[in-house]
# Entry
Amino acid sequence: TKMPAGQICLPTGACLLLLFGTLSSRVTEVGGTHQSIPPSVVKLWASAFGGEMKSISAKYSGSQLLQKKYKEFERAVRVEEIDGLRLVKRLAQDMEEMFHKKAQAMKRLVEAAEEAHLQHEEDADLQYEYFNAVLINEVNEEGNSVELGGEFILQPNDHFNNLSVNLSLSVVQVPTNMYNKDSAIVNGVYWSEALNKVFVDNFEKDPSLIWQYFGSAKGFFRQYPGIKWKPDEHGVIAFDCRNRKWYIQAATSPKNVVILVDVSGSMKGLRLTIAKQTVSSILDTLGDDDFFNIIAYNEELHYVEPCLNGTLVQADVTNKDHFREHLDKLFAQGIGMLDVGLTEAFNLLSDFNETGRGSECSQAIMLVTDGAVDTYDAIFAKYNWPDRKVRIFPYLIGRESAFADNLKWMACANKGYFTQISTLADVQENVMEYLHVLSRPKVIDREHDTVWTEAYIDSTLDDGSGPVLMTTVAMPVFSTKNETRNRGILLGVVGTDVPVSELLKTIPKYKLGIHGYAFAITNNGYILTHPDLRPLYGDGKKRRKPNYSSVDLSEVEWEDKDDTLRNAMVNRKTGTFSMEVTKSIDKGVKTCAYLHNDYYYTDIEGTPFSLGVALSREGTFNTGLTYCNTGDHPDHRYLSQIEAIKLYLSGHDEPQLKCDKELIQEVLFDAVVTAPLEAYWTSLVLNKSENSDKGVEIAYLGTRTGLSRINLFVVSDELTNQDFLTAEDKEGVFNADHFPLWYKRAAEQVPGTFVYSLPFTGSENKSVVLASTAIQLLDERKSPIAAAVGIQMKLEFFRRNFGQPCAALDGKCSISCDDENINCYLIDNNGFILVAEDYTLTGKFFGEAEGAVMNKLLLMGSFKRSVSPAEHTVSHYFLFRFLVEFNLYSWWYSDLTTKAQRLGRSMQVPCDTEYPAFISERTIKENMGHTDCDGCIKSFVIQQIPSSNLFMVVVDNKCDCSMFEPITMDPIEIMYILYWSKARLKMQKDRRRPDTCHPFHPEENSMECGGALGLAPSLSAILLCILFAVHPR
# Structure
């Protein structure tokens, strides 16, 4: 029988009218103000389209066949729910063993270095040719090797990102501002040559090690394996190992520091410039376990940051950068009243100690000035003697020495150190002197504390997706010569870098589930590793976000408003915690889901870290991608995972591969169960009557164990989206970080439901649609997800199917999407448009096209708005913490602060950035409503498409609703009241202090303080100084 024009027959035999056909329609108008959209018609449209698309998707994906095959193996499967607490304890133990292995390597270096120094006699005339990292393989005009150069064999090595290295020898780097052949450096380089053998032995014992090094207190840096260093465009290498966090943390104990800066009239010009650079260099030496503030003084006191007066702040990157900005606003005038500054500094340290915050260890006052007219012994006697708990470090700025004796006396009488800084070139070396003083107690105690740094980026290594996040383990090296014991001589610090990815290798991914993840934080609550920590941004992700190393856990697990999880982990507790969370499914916050997460946490012994595991109650069962660890031995590094599994199963894997036996068994099970799908797909390809218009292009499968299968229904050259499921499609394939996006989205839905989406890849290809569904392991409601299957189809094919079904209502359709007064949309559960009459709207957020309707849907509860409160949870722009934007006023001009206080809460300043996301309410399947647009009533109907994540939205478009702003997903800057922002600046979260503290030692020789005592104006001051030298406290 010939079909009537404009109709098609579905598999059920029902004939439907064309929705976007030429059918004319009549629109009923009510009072001339708005038109009626029959919900029953929209429901029939949605039902017909949903049935057709499910039929196509199920047929070409083979979902029903695969579900049947898993059911056949039901009796052979045993499901064990993950014991999260037991899991996190085992993971912490595995990490502890890995960390211990690295620390033992450093201990061997420490022992070798101290023994080599003990056997070495200093020789001021020593001549020794060593391999200088900059000069190796350099030749002069005659073609001869330059001094300290020579031939140094370098070969590319894949373990070191194919950099050319020498695995037999180390090289020595000396800062540009230091003399390569200085006697102290040559002697240090000579005795530290003994470390070469230990470097090599360590690498042989643990092939996962990367850079090993020794940073000398004299300034040189010995690095293994040897590699050539290249200066910048100015011929300078500014790197000084003594400025690095790993060096400072290992060399000194945590400290509270007040920096006093003289801004009297005599400091004008170059002196003030040198003073600012000195303060900035002091800030460089402070780390996350330190606390500080900066006070400028003349005849009055001026806190460099006015809203932080009377307190100390943590010396993280954000705070230090913030204070540096304010240093530029200092200028010199008036008379210097040092007594006022010292009194304030002592009171500040005392008051802050009473709060129980801060380092509660070493204390110091850094005095940056061009002179002192008195010794101010009365102040020291009142606030610091006889215990001398606060060390004084004067920095005399300029070439004049008229007041040097007074400053030297202050240092010697208060266990500090005096230095004079005449030029900008002198700043860094002189600032470093105070570190040697603070390290004395630790050296005399012979406490080789092992320290671990927070995460940082190593630009020299690249894992294929950008520079690698690292942590460093470091230990101090001491002089063990008896004659120098009370001087507490620090020789330097040894360290090695540990990629954060190395930590993640200890985590069996298949135990964490689709939305599960592991994370670790430091004793300060800062993230060491977390899937939402993304330190790079910009094109190609090559630029570092400014404060990536000091992102607090509360900024990514932001639903924990009371910091319950964060504080428990900071305080090294073991326990559990649960909360509802909103998580972005992709890395661009285009899609999100509501999840119920159970958190399990414990500490990692021997480190400052705590480990957490988050398991989602929606599918907390099994995934896996690294079956065998191929990185531990050079013979295995070129093996693919499939090759490694075959070698492991053959039993001929010498040296032995480390493989996850349980995971391999599971992936082999998946391979057997899913094998029939290949034959099924092939039969569809061979059947010429199927897919004649080539609308369906790809079928794909992924299992919980990382097994993938792909079938092409068209030749590869004809694929509309060439990137899908290729190496370039980071979000579409299994890797060590995550499940594919299509897999995660399918797992969110009820099994049997297909998830339709546009592939949000880097190019955001809008010419194809993906349809995916989850396959349950067992035939039970709460069964874990075993796999997901899906298809890629042309968007035009999908659009045609949307445009065909129009269910008959009394023999005809009362309305049509062809009607000029109606707009029809197909949107997903996150509000993104898949189909619209205006093709340019494909992929855009529905609120941008229909702001008035989206606003009403939010009010009616059909959609909910969620926000991510800070930039670090996404992959664009910068990290914003509350100090970054807070530079609107200086310490000198406090008009804005005064105005804010006078106006109460009326003045606002930028603080955080919100990133909105939207998700549909699952319980609301259909809805209708209307919006008053300046007297014109705009009506709409929204209907869920059965067995899918889609909604059909039909909107009348006769009204001008331009008075309603579009609802977008653009980031929103959150404004905070200036008055309350100041309170936030002062707020400090819980942190755990390091386990060890070495502020003083009774055997310490405090008279090594930067120079002999000069004449002081007070006899009592001299007597007090001598008394303290004889009876140190």
